[in-house]
Amino acid sequence: MGTIQIKTAIPGPKSKALAERRDHAVPRGLSQSTPVYVAKAEDAWLEDVDGNRYVDFAGGIGCINIGHRREAVVAAIREQLDRYLHTCVQVTPYEGYVRLAERMNEVTPGRFRKKTLFVNSGAEAIENAVKIARVHTGRPGIIAFEDAFHGRTMMTLALTSKTHPYKAGFAPFPSDVYRIPYAYCYRCSYSLRYPSCDVFCASHLEDTFKRVVAAEEVAAVIAEPVLGEGGFVVPPKEFFRILIDICHNHGVLFIADEVQSGFGRTGKLFASEHYGIEPDIVVTAKSLGGGLPLAAVTGRAEIMDAPGPGGLGGTFAGNPLSCAAALAVLDIFEHENLLERANALGNRFQKRAREWQERWPMIGDVRGLGAMQAIELVQSPEKREPAADEANQIVQYCYEHGLIVLSAGSYSNVIRVLVPLVATDAQMDEGLDVLEAALKAACEKKAVVAQTV
Ligand SMILES: Cc1ncc(COP(=O)(O)O)c(C=O)c1O
Questions:
Q1: pTM (global) more than 0.85
Q2: How many whole angstroms from 122 Cα to the centroid of ligand 1?
Q3: Which of 374, 376, 395, 394 is nearest to 386 (CA)?
Q4: Model confidence pLDDT, tens digit, residues 88-121
């Protein structure tokens, strides 16, 4: 018997009742991509309150790379539960925080002395990376990219690119943020083609320093090594090296946002490793805590030490349970070959997705690194108009048939895979079978609509 078991109409009666309560109690601004309420989760599957079982290709938006409720993580949390829950690291510190900082300094890219600060969320970590970069350089400017997503707090919204639903209506945002095109080759903002473009989007940073903001006014360039919410876009290999060389020639720092791409997702512990780069600051979160909230800012020691005592921190930042869980997560990566597994899962996806691309012109692009894989849906392969409604239909078809999967992209037309890296081949195939059926249904519906107009 497979993992997927659908016993009721989706959503089932208990999920429906909870959705009604939610409508009364929770603001609508907190969206939900699936209407099913979870009862329990293990490894790469979850079960809803009506007893339906799903393969999970979302992993709580990339937080469960090591699998739901991994025994070692749960045991580490239990052990910590019996000792203390919260003391505030700024009041009475504890070893778990220090040990985890030591481990993060060891495992993140960069052969230089590092220090690590822990906070609660990805957005909070990005905020702190910006604060640290500004104090260290004494400069205000931050350069971010088109299609970037860095969070929902005010500074991270300033850095985030997508207007609806994230930014529209929430202005004013903090100032001194400048935006340049990412290496999104499928939709190049300069209408160029790789490799004949010579990675113009990276070298163009020199021009930005002349025409947009002076380099000596810029503290840092911040980028995701693979776009997350922006649609799993993988830049050409040389993109970041060119960019970082220009940054360093001008005393500008490079911050890598590895919140979604980190912890094995791309087949290396950090996606930066694929490009052979050593960012000055690396920001991590999501799968770091193995399911508990935790985020980190790791960087060159002299940069991290720029703010004075009291300039960094927070009441709950780096709480003992999350640190214990994260230490267990790092042990798992040390002892299990999850990176190889990420590549195997990614290859399994790519093989199927390339076949789909040959069959259905709606699949404009298949791309990814390791297990960070996606397909971009278009109305036609020639004009590449985004097929957002179809992506929405596919997500819905999937959860109705036992697969939890998410869309992404500035045009909401990308289907992305964030499957826990412990998924078996059989679970991966079950999930891909549902996705294939969903694509088929969406393509057939599109063909019928085209015939009737
Ligand atoms: C690349 C990236 N940066 C930052 C964030 C924000 O993290 P959080 O939701 O934990 O604040 C996210 C969240 O999806 C992300 O994908």
A1: yes
A2: 5
A3: 376
A4: 999 999 999 999 999 999 999 999 999 999 999 9
